[in-house]
Amino acid sequence: MRMDTVVDIRQHFIDELKDEAFTIDKTGQKTIELIGASFLATENSIFGEPNADYIDAEINWYLSGSTNIFDIYVDRDPPKAWEYSANRHGEINSNYGHLIFSDIYYRQYDNVLTELLENPDSRRAAMIYNRPSIWTEFNENSKNDFICTNAVTYYIRNNKLQSVVQMRSNDVVFGYKNDYAWQQYVLKTLARDLGIKPGFIHWQVQNLHVYERHFHLVK
């Protein structure tokens, strides 16, 4: 069965922009969206170029486990998107390393590694990023951070480690590039710890979208 790739997703947004098939978000900004997107993440960007310096800083911040955005950089302010998500102290929910490595969230990375070592055919090797309590936590103390990744599940098939990334919401331009880099990091790290090669990332998004401010990149 043929699966869509980044090429297909890119063409969808090009066509939607040409047809002016817009939705309006809560700020009144035009967006182009794809509901129920599912594709092989075969490229590190859909539109625009990845920012390698920022990606390195974000991954290091995730690995630190800090939930404060002012720890992303030591010599500059954090990105505006994180400032928008944080409370006035800089606290957020979405440090992905904290969500899969910390004791408070049951050391999910270690659980998945153990599961796949003991049962390579397993279908339950899932790292769950979101949680029911997010409904009370996303806006506590003036935060605005409803975790975007729901869960990632890993499978050993044909002696390679495959992953399925399931997202609630994903901005095509900034979100995908940075999330892809993190998911590649985890996939490669887990494959190394299992002693096998990494395979594909299957990317599933409930709402994949481009904001009006990025329409000029849709080409």
Give a structural overview.
The chain is 33% helix and 23% strand. With 219 residues, it is an alpha/beta fold. Strands 1, 2, 3, 4, 5, 6 and 7 form a 7-stranded mixed β-sheet that branches. A hairpin with a 2-residue loop joins β4 (149-157) and β5 (160-167).
Key words describing this protein structure:
7-stranded mixed sheet, 7 strands, alpha/beta, 7 helices, single chain
Which outline best applies?
A: globular
Please work out how many helical segments DSSP would assign: 7
**What is the string of SSEs from the N terminus onward?**
HEEHHHHEHEEEHE
* Helix percent band: 25-40%
Which whole number gives the mean pLDDT? Answer: 97
SS class: alpha/beta
Q: Mind describing the biggest β-sheet? A: 7 strands, mixed
Strand content: 15-25%
For the secondary structure, the number of strands is 7
Low-confidence stretches: none
Overall radius of gyration: 18 Å
Give the termini separation: 28 Å
